[in-house]
């Protein structure tokens, strides 16, 4: 399945989602690597099979193998760290903040991809996972390097639309099985 096929498969009740997906696929605020890496990281962060397949197909055409692996890595890392740091943020007992994390994390970006692209993808997946601490940390890193607010906003829009497209796709599949 391609992104075009994904857009076409979204039911009428999700037409705003489909339209936003189309608009973002054509948006030029991000570089091609930033944009398609963001879509791929978000798809993997959510894990709805048809959406993952659609963005994997796009990644084959638009990203180097290293960039695609880095986007997948952003989803995997945030899948772990977002849960941990979101829990610390939500818990009232602040003792846990003083303890070492004891989760293995290589803080450098994977080889073959710009660190700021990786930070952008991690920010988008953190938005999907609802981790305020991680959102702040990744946004701070991007701001330190002069990344414009419009770039951050576009990554957040991609996260929102990828999430909505995944939910609509999963719901439509579930309804079709009745």
UniProtKB/TrEMBL annotation:
Domain of life: Bacteria
Catalysis: reaction(s): N(6)-[(R)-dihydrolipoyl]-L-lysyl-[lipoyl-carrier protein] + a hydroperoxide = N(6)-[(R)-lipoyl]-L-lysyl-[lipoyl-carrier protein] + an alcohol + H2O
EC number of this enzyme: 1.11.1.28
InterPro entries linked: AhpD (IPR004674), AhpD_core (IPR004675), CMD-like (IPR003779)
N-terminal signal peptide: none
Keyword ATP-binding: no
Coiled coil (residue ranges): none
Disulfide bonds: 131-134
Keywords from the UniProt entry: Antioxidant, Disulfide bond, Oxidoreductase, Peroxidase, Redox-active center
Reported function: Antioxidant protein with alkyl hydroperoxidase activity. Required for the reduction of the AhpC active site cysteine residues and for the regeneration of the AhpC enzyme activity.
Record-stated family: Belongs to the AhpD family.
PANTHER family on file: ALKYL HYDROPEROXIDE REDUCTASE AHPD
Name recorded for this polypeptide: Alkyl hydroperoxide reductase AhpD
Organism of derivation: Brevundimonas nasdae
Lineage, highest ranks first: Bacteria, Pseudomonadati, Pseudomonadota, Alphaproteobacteria, Caulobacterales
